[in-house]
Every structure is written in C-alpha cells, then in structure tokens.
C-alpha cells in the first residue's frame, strides 16, 4: 500500500513552506490542501484540536503537528540512511555515497571545535548525536566505515558520549542493528 500524505497549510504560512521544502527534498508525493485561516476546515480542527494551526501533516490518517516536529518526522520516515539497510546494489551504493557526503558536510561544519556549539555541548549537538545510534547499522549493511570516512565526526560522537546526559539515554547501536535485521525480515527484504 502506498503512503497517503496530506499537508494542511496555507500558501502564506512560512511554517508550512518549511514542510513543503522537506517533502520536496525527500521527493515525497503529497496532496496539498489550502486552509482558510479564518474559516478552518473540520479536518484541520480535528487533526490539531489543541492549537488549531497549520501546518498539519497527515500520514496514512495520522496527524503530525508543528513544523519542526513534522520536519523531524519526515526525516525519520524518509531517510537516505534507510536506503542503505533496505536495499542492495546500485540503490544502496548511491545511498551510501549520499550519506557519506552529508556526514562529511557535517564534519566540515564541526571543524576543529570539540562541539558544534564550541567548547560545550549545545543545541545542535543535542539535535544530531541521537542519529549516531544508526551509524553501526549503516556501516554493517553498507560495508563501509564512518570512522574511516569521517574521523573528526566520530571523535565528536565519542566526546558527546562522554557526557552522562548522552550516555544515559542513547541506546546501544547494536540494538538498532538487531532491530533492523528483524525489520528487514518482517518486510521481506532479505
């Protein structure tokens, strides 16, 4: 069954524009429904009963509200990394190349600083470090080493993991790998 994606927004909503950019970057087909912000549709009021604001992304009947959360959701549902563990051959090779490019760009932004924010763990570090839990999965399925490709980025991951606040909550990367092995089996991708 194909994904059904609907975006409730307004052409004038800068927050909705963010979501449209994220959907376009992931090449997601979706239906755009223009909302009259002074006469909101029953679907909008039902989908976002607390704030009653756009944008709202409805993915297979489930609403996601607030542009930052929607963008994060889109990135998690349609990541380039999943193409590494879900595929083989040319598709996997292209996804691996794309991921390495993204990681090298992040490494370039990090530069010689210990953290993205400078000398102390900050907002960008907190936003990014959870993605490191997936690195082992990508490496095993993709047959490459992130340490070899992006050594400064991996040094940053280790520095982040020295923080009790990080190690206390980040799951073991091997657990992600095992989960995805099981998921591949369930999805018939083996």
UniProtKB/TrEMBL annotation:
EC number: 2.5.1.18
One cellular component term from this protein's GO annotations in UniProt: cytosol
Location of the GST N-terminal domain: 3-82
Residues of the GST C-terminal domain: 59-183
Signal peptide extent: 1-24
Top-level taxon of the source organism: Eukaryota
GO molecular function list: glutathione transferase activity
Annotated compartments: Cytoplasm, Cytosol
SUPFAM superfamilies in alphabetical order: GST C-terminal domain-like, Thioredoxin-like
UniProt record, GO biological process: glutathione metabolic process
Location (main, coarse): cytoplasm
Keywords per UniProt: Cytoplasm, Signal, Transferase
Catalytic activity: RX + glutathione = an S-substituted glutathione + a halide anion + H(+)
Role description: Is involved in the conjugation of reduced glutathione to a wide number of exogenous and endogenous hydrophobic electrophiles.
Family: Belongs to the GST superfamily.
UniProt name for this protein: Glutathione S-transferase
Protein source organism: Cocos nucifera
């Amino acid at each position: 069954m194909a994904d059904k994606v609907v975006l409730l927004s307004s052409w004038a909503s800068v927050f909705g524009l963010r979501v449209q950019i994220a959907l376009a970057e992931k090449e997601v087909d979706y239906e755009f429904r223009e909302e009259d912000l002074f006469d909101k549709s029953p679907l909008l009021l039902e989908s976002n009963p607390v704030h009653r604001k756009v944008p709202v992304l409805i993915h297979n009947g489930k609403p996601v509200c607030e542009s930052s959360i929607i963008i994060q959701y889109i990135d998690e549902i349609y990541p380039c990394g999943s193409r590494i563990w879900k595929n083989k051959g040319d598709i996997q090779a292209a996804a691996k190349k794309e991921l390495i490019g993204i990681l090298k760009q992040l490494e370039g932004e990090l530069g010689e600083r210990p953290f993205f924010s400078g000398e102390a763990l900050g907002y960008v570090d907190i936003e990014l470090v959870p993605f490191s839990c997936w690195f082992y999965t990508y490496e095993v399925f993709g047959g490459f080493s992130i340490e070899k490709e992006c050594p400064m980025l991996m040094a940053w991951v280790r520095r982040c993991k020295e923080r009790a606040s990080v190690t206390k909550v980040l799951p073991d990367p091997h657990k992600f790998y095992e989960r995805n092995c099981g998921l591949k089996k369930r999805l018939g991708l083996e």
